[in-house]
Design goal:
The protein is an alpha+beta fold. It has helices spanning 24-43, 75-87, 106-115, 126-130, 152-161, 180-188, 202-205, 258-269, 361-368, 378-388, 431-446; strands at 121-122, 133-138, 141-147, 164-167, 172-178, 211-216, 225-233, 247-253, 272-273, 278-280, 317-319, 334-336, 343-347, 351-357, 402-405, 466-473, 476-482. The chain is elongated, with a radius of gyration of 37 Å. Residues 61-81, 97-107 have a biased composition (Basic residues). Residues 296-306 have a biased composition (Basic and acidic residues).
Length: 491
């Protein structure tokens, strides 16, 4: 069944007569209000609309931070955006100072630097590594794990052709000071002659060479292995008698097994901590008699906690209790035996250790370190200059220890980054002469070095950094530098 199409225009047979033209002015005037209502409905952000102000902008004008920073929006939308954020509870705070210098004062930076080390200790190179490396938490330290860039080939090329530097300052140092016979008997229980030379071998006692030894639990060799530790003896003065004077041993421990080794040392030498001392109540405790920096923090037990009276404790004695705020700057724990002849001090975070690997490590040291020349240190400066000018550390003894006073390298840093590739001058002393003079020079530098109560020996900390180089491989060297907090600055 077909239906007939009805026309609309009268000219075609329809019923409606259409005008032949349209007046544009009248048409726009009639449609103006409709257009206004349409635009208002599109931009409306009331409860009837689910979009916010910054969501109504064109895509090319949108920014990711617009929801938090009103200044990212055009000026005419900022007030409405602040009103919306205020209703949702995200009102931006306008109480900040506009200048950055008020927020980065030195005291605030140091306070923040200390606060962030409450759980994991930072190395002194942490800021540099944190910008370039992936950081991991290991053994109570925050250590660089791997570079953020693909630098594996660059590291291999540096170690094979130039020089690669690594920060190994997380190694801890333990100082033992006492008679040689007592130290020999104690370490005989922790080591075995079948593993090589012992700690008290004559080749190490002079302080010229650094050694390493395998440590085991007391009387459990070959079981109960702890770790392989390196050690170094402080050279003695020429007039000191080997049997009558105390010897100082510096033991370097990896943090993964440092606590286990420390427990064995305390057990073998029968040491007790200084925190266990008790003083009578009627005795005046003054700062001159007590070294607060040496006392280890102790936690209050139930018997000694305030608020509870302990009737069993004698009224004439009381334990010493001290607390520190951070783990990074705890005082140095110290221990001693019953008769006071042997002392043990933990020198953690007192040294910066850097390992240089590569055929040009010697040239890097020569270009970076400049001997500190004084009248009484002229022979030491000449020896240091000659030792650094050698073509390779293999020309000297293995594990040789050289202590030198050098000028702060930051004072002679080049303006442009360069490589130490130039040819070095012929050293004034040959390798044989250096071997003959090394013992005399090292003794002069380190013989009078007795550890101060605040850090590294005074003889090693005048106003320059101290370096101790050791080459346990033909292409590997290490630098032992005191921490910046323990050295005096230039006036």
């Amino acid at each position: 069944m077909s239906t007939q199409k009805v026309e609309y225009d009268a000219a075609l047979g329809g019923r409606v007569t259409l005008p032949s033209h349209v007046t544009t002015y009248h048409y726009a005037a009639e449609a103006l209000q409709e257009i206004r209502n349409l635009v208002a409905d599109c931009q409306e952000t009331t409860q009837r609309s689910s979009k916010l102000i910054f969501q109504t902008l064109p895509k090319h004008m949108r920014r990711r931070a617009m929801s938090h920073h009103p200044k990212r929006l055009p000026r005419k939308y900022r007030q409405a955006h602040k009103s919306q954020m205020g209703k949702s509870g995200n009102q931006p705070v306008n109480g900040k100072r506009p200048s950055r210098k008020y927020r980065r004062r030195p005291k605030n930076l140091m306070r923040e630097y200390v606060r962030r080390q409450r759980r994991h200790v930072w190395l002194e190179t942490h800021i540099w590594h944190a910008k370039r490396f992936h950081m991991v938490d290991r053994w109570g330290h925050r250590l660089p794990y791997a570079s953020c860039d693909k630098t594996y080939r660059a590291c291999y090329r540096a170690s094979a052709e130039h020089c690669l530097l690594q920060d190994i300052s997380f190694y801890g140092c333990v100082e033992l000071r006492g008679p040689l016979d007592m130290l020999r008997e104690g370490f005989a229980r922790l080591t075995s002659p079948q593993c090589g030379l012992g700690i008290t071998a004559r080749t190490f006692l002079s302080g010229r060479r650094e050694g390493s030894v395998e440590l085991f639990e007391d009387g459990r060799y070959p079981y109960g292995a702890l770790q392989r530790a390196s050690f170094m003896w402080r050279p003695r003065r020429e007039e000191e008698d080997e049997k009558q004077t105390n010897h100082t041993l510096w033991l370097w421990l990896h943090p993964s097994g440092a606590q286990a080794v420390l427990n064995q040392l305390i057990s073998v030498f029968q040491l007790k901590s200084t925190r266990q001392q008790k003083l009578p109540l009627n005795e005046a405790v003054t700062e001159e008699k007590m070294d607060v920096d040496k006392i280890e923090p102790v936690e209050l037990s139930k018997e000694t906690s305030p608020g509870k009276k302990n009737s069993k404790k004698k009224p004439e004695q009381r334990p010493l209790r001290f607390w520190t705020k951070t783990k990074a700057f705890d005082p140095q724990p110290s221990y001693f035996n019953s008769d006071g002849t042997l002392h043990l001090v933990l020198l953690q975070r007192e040294f910066n250790r850097f390992r240089l690997t590569g055929p040009r490590a010697q040239k890097v040291l020569f270009a970076s370190l400049r001997p500190h020349r004084e009248e009484e240190l002229q022979d030491k400066a000449n020896y240091c200059q000659a030792a650094l000018q050698l073509s390779s550390p293999a020309e000297l003894l293995s594990n040789l220890v050289m202590a030198h006073l050098v000028v702060d390298p930051r004072l002679q840093r080049p303006k442009k980054r360069t490589k130490a590739v130039g040819k070095m001058e012929q050293p004034p002393l040959s390798a044989g002469d250096l071997l003959m003079n090394s013992q005399r020079v090292c003794r002069r530098v380190l013989c009078g070095a007795r550890r101060r109560e605040s850090g590294w020996p005074k003889a090693l900390c005048p106003r320059t950094s101290t370096t101790s180089c050791e080459n346990n491989m033909p292409l590997c060297q290490e630098l032992h530098v005191p921490s910046n907090s323990k050295c005096r600055r230039f006036p």
